[in-house]
Structure prediction request, 364 residues.
Amino acid sequence: MTLPDGALTQLNRTPHEACDGLSDSTSKIFNKLKIFRKSRGGEGYGEPTMEPVIIVLIILVVLVFIALIKTIQVIPQASAAIVERFGRYTRTLNAGLNIVVPFIDTIRNRIDLREQVVPFPPQPVITQDNLVVNIDTVIYYQVTDARAATYEVASYIQAIEQLTVTTLRNIIGGMDLERTLTSREEINAALRGVLDEATGKWGIRVNRVELKAIEPPTSIQDSMEKQMRADRDKRAAILTAEGTRQAAILTAEGEKQSQILRAEGEAKAAALRAEGEAQAVRTVFEAIHAGDPDQKLLSYQYLQMLPKIAEGDANKLWIVPSEIGDALKGLSGAMGNFGPMAGGSGGGGNNSGGTERREKPSID
Prediction:
């Protein structure tokens, strides 16, 4: 830098005097360069200013602070961080406080190790019977190896989605619509097996795969509703017929059981009645034999039974046993014997009158 003429002569003067004596351009140069008085014979340039030192100190403090921030890395729980040194993988930082070399080690990626849920949009899939169905899927996955998830695949979410779509098309392509709608568990198991095997090298574990919805075309849905309605009506008719048949069977069995029980009751009642009558006859017979009745008593009993034989309006024909005549003879003899005891000498006329009145009833 060239100083104008007379500028060197101003160096021995004070800074203010030197600045005043110079031209405008020279004073501007002195102000920018902060040129102060220069002592000769080994003397210094004067008292240095503190502003550059403060600026340097501030810069150093900022650099130290940034270095500390880059040196200390705090990783949250269930997380991991990938450390690279000059672009090359060095190590994986686990949860807690970690120390890295500032400006040399860099954090490339922070990965969440918790189980993640990713829903995928509906995908059109063709079944074996050439019907297009839309299938919604939900994937539950978890990162098990942060290094593999970072370096083995560019975007594991997109890779899992595309793998899910292709696997679904392979599985559903071998099933018809009815089997597809009724085999969700089978489809989930097959899809999970394929995804878990394929994503293992990426450091991903697929824990669960769910089919949210399987939507067939609208026309197929209408046909399915009609078919389901017809099946329900058919099942209702079958159940009604089976109920009527079962009711008839139960009614018949009930009547049969009732008749059997009624017949058994009547038989037991008849048996008991017969036993009662037999016991009564036996008792009467024993009483008669015990009383030792004579012919007179028996004749009297025959006469008492005659009105009972003639009872009833429908009895137009009745038969008198032959023993009735003998009984009447015995009874008339008994009355003749009782005559003298009752009235004295008039007994003969009464006896003859009694003989005339003993007529056998006519048999119609």
